[in-house]
């Protein structure tokens, strides 16, 4: 069982930066592929980025490519999402999600393929 807790959300002006953290419980988290998703009111949950268990492989949604960076520190069992050049359309609740996929470089953008979810953290970007 893995529990995920997001933090780092808040209010920022357009063009600013935020760093989200996803802290996990459980030593096996280092074997988990981890993703970030976001959801705005009235919209479906949207893929943002994912990182493999090793941290070697990453993938991003086109809407955030070049602005967001996903990384992980397995010693701290934490995954990060560095968000730069933020835009008002980035406003959403951001969720961390994980699935046990050790020794695999496969990265999914579908929320249905993730088994564990955090409670979310609000990011608001003002214009």
List the helices and strands and how they pair.
Elements: E1 4-7, E2 10-13, E3 18-24, E4 32-39, E5 46-51, E6 58-60, E7 68-73, E8 78-83, E9 92-100, E10 116-117, E11 121-126
Parallel strand pairs: 2-11
Antiparallel strand pairs: 1-3, 3-8, 4-5, 4-9, 5-6, 7-8, 9-10, 9-11
Report how far the terminal alpha carbons are from each other. Answer: 40 Å
Tell me roughly what share of residues is in helical segments. under 10%
The quaternary structure here is single chain
Largest sheet data: 7 strands, mixed
Low-confidence stretches: none
Instruction: Provide the structure class.
Output: mainly beta
Number of discrete helical segments: 0
Instruction: Provide the residue-averaged pLDDT.
Output: 95
SSE string, helices as H and strands as E: EEEEEEEEEEE
Kindly provide the radius of gyration, computed on alpha-carbon positions and rounded to a whole number of angstroms.
13 Å
Total strands: the figure is 11
Inertia-based shape:
globular
Strand content: over 45%
Describe this protein's structure.
- The protein has 127 residues and is mainly β.
- It is built from no helices and eleven strands.
- The strands form two sheets. Strands 2, 4, 5, 6, 9, 10 and 11 form a seven-stranded mixed β-sheet that branches. The protein has a four-stranded antiparallel β-sheet with strand order 1-3-8-7, with no helix packed on it.
Overview features:
seven-stranded mixed sheet; four-stranded antiparallel sheet; 127 residues; mainly beta; 11 strands
